[in-house]
Fold this sequence. Notes:
Number of domains: 2
Shape: elongated
Mean pLDDT: 83
Radius of gyration: 37 Å
Strand content: 5-15%
Low-confidence stretches: 149-155, 594-600, 716-749
Amino acid sequence: MVELVGNHYIVARAVYSENSFNEEHVKLHRYHKTFWDHLKLYFRCSPQRVKKIALGLFPIVSWLPAYRFREWILSDIVSGINTGLVAVLQGLAFALLVNVPPGYGLYAAFFPVLVYFIFGTSRHISVGPFPVLSLMVGGAVVRLVPDESDGNVTSLNMSAINEERVMVAASVTFLSGVFQLLLGIVQFGFIVIYLSHSLISGFTTAAAIHVVVSQLKFMLQLPVPGFNKPFGIIYTLESIFSQITKTNIADLVTSLIVLLIVFVVKEVNDRYKAKLPTPIPIELLVTVLAALISYFVNFEEKFNVAVVGTLEEGFQAPVAPNISVLQKCIGDSISIAIVGFAVAFSVAKVYSIKHDYPVDSNQELIAFGLGNIVGGSFKGFASSTSLSRSGVQESSGGKTQIAGIISAVIVLTVILAIGFLLEPLQKSVLASLALGNLKGMLMQFKEVGVLWRKDKYDCVIWVVTFLAAVFLGLDIGLATAVAFQLLTVVIRSQIPSCTVLANVGRSNIYRNRKDYTDIYEPEGVKIFRCSSPIFFANIEYFREKLITAVGFNPLRVLRKRNKALRKIRKMLKKGELQVTPKGLICLANHTHESDEELDNNRIEELDQPTNMTDLSILINWGTDLPPGITVPQVNIHSIILDFSAVSFLDFSAMRVLQKTLKEFVRINIDVYIAGAHEGFLDKLERCAFFDEEIKPSMFFLTVHDAVLHILLKKDIACSPKSKLAEEKGSSKDYIITFSNGLRSREGTV
């Protein structure tokens, strides 16, 4: 019964153990589906299920018929044109990161957009090249087709090297798409949860550093070979600085001017985005201006600058991936697949929350997988979503992926008709544009201080991820970061928070006894909480903390008592002890039992419960024992284990827990477990946890139920004795009173 009195409530009910509660309240039997049941449900076939699968696989069927043509078409056209112009420039720029001719970046900005239009679930992201993925693909390309030819390929010219690199990039992209497609089919979209925000932030920041270093050779126009190996960034910087005197000044000046202009205008766009109808397309303006100047001044001949060169018109025939390349880049493809999906889904989730529509992680995997398969077949490279490009599409009014199709039309126009206008453009300009899009990633350094103040574990994950990705490379760095992140989870669960609780505020609330002054602890009762799952890796830590909390080792006490009983029997047999109504009286000079003699005792016998049936007296271990016999004092009679935060208990931990509880029971300490979750008892029964010493009756619904049970059992209500925690400087005296079996307190000064 619950009675409300103002903002208080009074509850009157029986004290419930798990057994008594189940006896009074009938529990419904529920059938829990097995693995085979789920498997049958997944593979069952019905018209409704076929329709649901079809609509899920082709989201366009759901949203396109509901398209508000009059309201949205103009916004999508404007957004698509702006996004398409940015996509063209980023495709050309990010192709340099892949170490392939710039024209192939246009394929990566075209084909995945068409596929995502049909299969994708996000309405606002712009699919296409992403600098981090481009750099990861470029790492595989440089490793398999290095800049410096060995003796076996001396006859290869630059054109042949470029063609081979294009094939490697396409094969890596194809394989990463296959991995994404398979993960989507088997419903592995949840894999993104293993890449935390801290890990993704540290990884993308490290990738931005790699992008900066990789573009220096284009900004300075230096022949720097690729070093796709651990500490490759150090070797790259060493190569750059060893040739710094050969820098092309025209490229360097052009790069610095472009960078300055891009950063300034992007800052203006960010600061005044609420007032600007659309962001200033600075990349487009700079590209047009730089191409015109380069053409009319003839930079290529006068200053020997590197330019984009001939862009092939039209599309090349689709090709099958190179099998030998696939075998060598499995690890690269897996990393690219996971990182590409994680970044894209994170951005899609932001926009889905902002505009209130769902995104399906598994369908996103399928969409990006098919996009990379098609893109790789047409010699493109891996695609995801660019943060800046998606920002342009959303902020300029894009409503659906119709804007994506319009942007693809812009890219198509460049591929088929006007690509030749970009041929005089300097590569250093594209490198500067690539760096200009890294501002957001580089600004993530600010997160380190914020994370340190909020969560030091996340801060350490960020730093380790960043350092590993910078110095070990993006592929090995990602694997290292994921392993370290999982290690932090293990460490946190291996060293759980264990506290001793006390009653606070004369109620049924129990909190850490160290945090409050107005607390009550029943005499002889310890309430111990573990705020973590208990399993094989932390059960020993749990046991140690429990022993520290109670102040003694129960196994040591048990062995000491059995040794004492053995010596008492021996002294009684020799007549050295006499049993009297007042206790045992020693009639002879006592002698201490030697350590050697104690060590020779059989441990198995000492670990058994104390047996005093053959004695004519019941020994009270709390009173004085005969001289020469010492046993550790035990000042508690009950222990309550709060398992409300223990989500699971594995079999290994169960065995150790059972052994520990038996040790306490064998020295006459009652043990109770409170707050165990549903199904906990059933699992213990299945694992034969209970026996004559450990019984289901020790389980109670709440800590307060267990405390009240102990008070009633020990008859404390008749003669209350309590131990009140005395804080430093406290001058209060407390009077403990009881009413109807419930504790209350009054404080007097």
